[in-house]
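Blinded run. Sample ID left blank on purpose so nobody reads anything into the name before looking at the predicted structure. Input follows.
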Amino acid sequence: MAGEIRVCQRCLLKSSIPYLSFDDQGVCSVCNDPRERPTDDFREVAADQLRQLFQRAQHGRGAYDVLVLVSGGGDSAYLLDVMVNEYRLKPLALFLVESIGQPAATRNARRITKTLGVDLMAFSTEAELVKRWIREGLPAALGRDIGPHAGRDLFVHLRRALSCNLAIRLGIPTVAEGILPYQGPELLVVQGADRREYFCHTRKRRILLDVFREVFRNELTGSLYDLDLAGRDDELPNMVFPNAILDYSRPRARARLQELGFHPTDFRGFDTNTDVNPFASCFSYAAHDCHVNIEPMARQLRRRGTLQAGRRKLDRDEALEFVNELKGATLFFAERERELPDELPAYAQLFPRLRELFGNDEIFLGRIRRKRKVRALADYFGMVLPQAQE
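Blinded prediction complete.
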């Protein structure tokens, strides 16, 4: 990318992201957007909408009130507990069995649903279809300037298409996801007329639909994988993000899951389903010199004033250092086929500052082990890792 890359003076976003602009003070257009500074009223309104939506669901006649996408991580496990024990709903838990998934995720999904007495639907995704979607769709999405989140979006929106299409077929009125407060979109309760705009007409959705049609043409029309939900206005489910609305925190979630019989190590770093992030980041570094999750990280810094990294809260300068250290560690494993003992001392010697910034050796070790899989995932998807920007 030609020209000097600037970093926003308030957050972590860079001028290499195609849809950003910067003012004379070096502040990005996202920081200057008033919607990025949600008030207490904003969250209170969303919480009230959520209560009303679930109150109506309790009077429904269907077998299930809400479909909860369960990843096997702690965030969605806690969300499922909230649906059952706080809102008194009848959820159906959907767990997507993926060939690149972790065994711990499957165990956790089964245990939490059994503990809560919730029905579990385990859906085995078609490995070759997912490989093709990533192999052909990722370069196409980046070529359309979708942004550094392209790799994450392809995974998230294919999973979201599956959950929404299943909800439509099963007559479940609402889909809930366990994303974190700082990851929340502008709309935290998508219902009524907002559903069509959210599912069909946002900039991101239009790009993903174009890419989906380019990759699969008409092969998946009408299938559970079909991203194109236009024309189904009356059938579209509501979409809600309760963890982003409620006073959610991972320490509270850990404590509650321990009450339900889980050990803290069962969920490790809480993100049992995110092994693909370092792989996706390699493409984001090449296209935009950004981590694949730079926007959620920047949003957390913008809204809270700090970035949570492991057990530490980082200020902006430390956060900038942190994302650069993440890049260095990812590219180390992407660019080298080197035998390295899978142990803390070896990693600590290579990445001492990253270890310090995480502030917790177990979390640091888990993150490094994910980065070790970058080349294996590239082989799995049949892709060549690109050269990152210096």
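Unblinding after everyone has recorded impressions. The chain has a mean pLDDT of 88.
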